[in-house]
């Protein structure tokens, strides 16, 4: 073996950026937050007006920031317990404060130069992976950090056995809520994306559809772990104009279809999300639950992995794999300073121009 074949381990990392989506903390934040999310993305104004109401229904406060801080607290405890108290955790977001660029500025001011980034999405695809790379690149540019700073995004974790195990633990509890009588139908749900975005998801050479394949594979694996052979994978929270196809069926259409087939018990698992944020408490606990009640369906929504010991331990495992400079930097979704992991991977699809 020649020297060039042996890749020396990189330098260790000195801080962790917990990077998420962001959400409003008060009613006045709702509009500007939504403008950040949807800038240039062709979301119809009527849809935005609806979504404003979803946030206002909860007092204009998204649960997501508190949930992320809870996860960070749990991860802090886990890393401390593993002798990693010297690795500070910072919090930054794509769409709302604390914004990633501000957090990265503070990290650099505090003397950090080698930064691991844990994104709160398990998945590939533009919204779940590549856009987090863009957030990192944007933060580097906005914070004006020097070339001596490295931000390494940790890989997608949807294939991790412990992710699937943590989801399965929650599903098992949900199924146990129906000890007797007809077994409930198990339904997995994830955020819908445009069909065109799904076709573009993953390395071009793999033929696309990485996101929907990952969600389906993870769902099948979880179903296997809980011993269920018949289950459904459906989508939620679509936001595009109606003429543009998004991944379907929608959870609500699916509940109607199940009801018409005589299904009267449903366990819904939001496998697509890691915390019980607004897309979960509105789309599933409010809209979905109300529709189920109308249809006479007994409906249980299982919790996301959130601060479960098993998930927090997995996040700590992933961090530790990379913290000392090791780890597989060719893993899907891993990349430095906003560089994507494969050529032509999750290329953003050109959005239709907004009418008017
Ligand atoms: C794949 C995916 C994930 C999972 C991966 C990940 O977790 O990153 C995710 C997560 C989330 N999505 C969220 C909220 C929103 N998503 C929107 C819009 C969109 N999401 C998309 C995709 C995804 N989104 C897409 C293709 C759009 C259309 C516009 C665009 O092409 O970008 C809009 C705009 C209004 C509307 O809903 O129409 C909002 C408010 C919140 C925060 C909830 C809270 O505040 O608690 C979270 C965690
Ligand atoms: Fe979203």
Automatic annotation (TrEMBL):
<feature type="binding site">
    <location>
        <position position="279"/>
    </location>
    <ligand>
        <name>Fe(2+)</name>
    </ligand>
</feature>
<keyword id="KW-0350">Heme biosynthesis</keyword>
<feature type="binding site">
    <location>
        <position position="191"/>
    </location>
    <ligand>
        <name>Fe(2+)</name>
    </ligand>
</feature>
<dbReference type="InterPro" id="IPR019772">
    <property type="entry name" value="Ferrochelatase_AS"/>
</dbReference>
<keyword id="KW-0408">Iron</keyword>
<dbReference type="Pfam" id="PF00762">
    <property type="entry name" value="Ferrochelatase"/>
</dbReference>
<comment type="pathway">
    <text>Porphyrin-containing compound metabolism; protoheme biosynthesis.</text>
</comment>
<dbReference type="InterPro" id="IPR033644">
    <property type="entry name" value="Ferrochelatase_C"/>
</dbReference>
<keyword id="KW-0456">Lyase</keyword>
<dbReference type="InterPro" id="IPR001015">
    <property type="entry name" value="Ferrochelatase"/>
</dbReference>
<keyword id="KW-0627">Porphyrin biosynthesis</keyword>
<dbReference type="GO" id="GO:0016829">
    <property type="term" value="F:lyase activity"/>
</dbReference>
<dbReference type="InterPro" id="IPR033659">
    <property type="entry name" value="Ferrochelatase_N"/>
</dbReference>
<comment type="function">
    <text>Involved in coproporphyrin-dependent heme b biosynthesis. Catalyzes the insertion of ferrous iron into coproporphyrin III to form Fe-coproporphyrin III.</text>
</comment>
<keyword id="KW-0479">Metal-binding</keyword>
<keyword id="KW-0963">Cytoplasm</keyword>
<comment type="similarity">
    <text>Belongs to the ferrochelatase family.</text>
</comment>
<protein>
    <recommendedName>
        <fullName>Coproporphyrin III ferrochelatase</fullName>
        <ecNumber>4.99.1.9</ecNumber>
    </recommendedName>
</protein>
<feature type="binding site">
    <location>
        <position position="62"/>
    </location>
    <ligand>
        <name>Fe-coproporphyrin III</name>
    </ligand>
</feature>
<feature type="binding site">
    <location>
        <position position="132"/>
    </location>
    <ligand>
        <name>Fe-coproporphyrin III</name>
    </ligand>
</feature>
């Amino acid at each position: 073996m020649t020297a060039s074949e042996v890749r020396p381990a990189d330098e260790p990392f000195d801080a962790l950026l917990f990077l998420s989506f962001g959400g409003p903390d008060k009613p006045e934040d709702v509009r500007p937050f939504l403008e950040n999310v949807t800038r240039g993305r062709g979301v119809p104004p009527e849809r935005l007006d609806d979504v404003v109401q979803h946030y206002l229904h909860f007092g204009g406060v998204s649960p997501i920031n508190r949930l992320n801080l809870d996860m960070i607290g749990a991860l802090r405890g886990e890393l401390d317990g593993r002798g990693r108290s010297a690795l500070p955790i910072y919090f930054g977001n794509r769409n709302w404060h604390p914004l990633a660029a501000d957090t990265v500025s503070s990290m650099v001011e505090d003397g950090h130069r080698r930064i691991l980034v844990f994104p709160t999405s398990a998945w590939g695809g533009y919204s779940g992976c590549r856009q987090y790379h863009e957030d990192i690149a944007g933060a580097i540019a906005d914070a004006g950090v020097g070339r001596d700073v490295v931000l390494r995004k940790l890989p997608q974790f949807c294939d991790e056995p412990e992710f699937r195990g943590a989801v399965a633990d929650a599903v098992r509890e949900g199924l146990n809520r129906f000890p007797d009588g007809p077994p409930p139908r198990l339904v997995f749900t994830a955020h819908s994306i445009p069909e065109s975005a799904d076709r573009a998801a993953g390395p071009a050479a793999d033929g696309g559809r990485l996101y929907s394949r990952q969600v389906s594979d993870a769902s099948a694996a979880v179903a296997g772990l809980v011993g269920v052979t018949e289950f459904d994978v459906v989508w939620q929270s679509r936001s595009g104009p109606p003429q543009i196809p998004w991944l379907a069926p929608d959870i609500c259409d699916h509940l109607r279809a199940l009801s018409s087939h005589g299904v009267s018990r449903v366990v819904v698992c939001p496998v697509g999300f890691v915390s019980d944020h607004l897309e979960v408490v509105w789309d599933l606990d409010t809209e979905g639950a109300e529709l189920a009640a109308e249809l006479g369906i007994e409906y249980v929504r299982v919790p996301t992995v959130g601060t479960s010991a098993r998930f927090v331990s997995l996040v700590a495992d992933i961090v530790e794999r990379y913290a000392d400079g090791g780890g597989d930097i060719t893993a899907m979704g891993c990349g430095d300073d906003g560089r994507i992991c494969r050529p032509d991977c999750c290329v953003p699809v050109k959005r239709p121009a907004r009418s008017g």
